[in-house]
Amino acid sequence: MTTPLSSEPICVRVNDAARMIGVGRTKLYELIAAGEIETVKLGKATCITTASLHDLVRRQRGAP
To answer: Which stretches make up the Helix-turn-helix domain (predicted)?
Structure first.
């Protein structure tokens, strides 16, 4: 049995990730360096997992 695919992408490029959480590229790279956001290299492209963006927002809100 297959699971229906979500319309949300699994990962996005840096510019899109920054826009999604409302920060600039510099701040996003700071969050990556601090280990707050998970990245995946696909060839030369750095992609950000959308799950890590959701987790970051949850942590910042103090949600369980």
So the answer is: 13-61
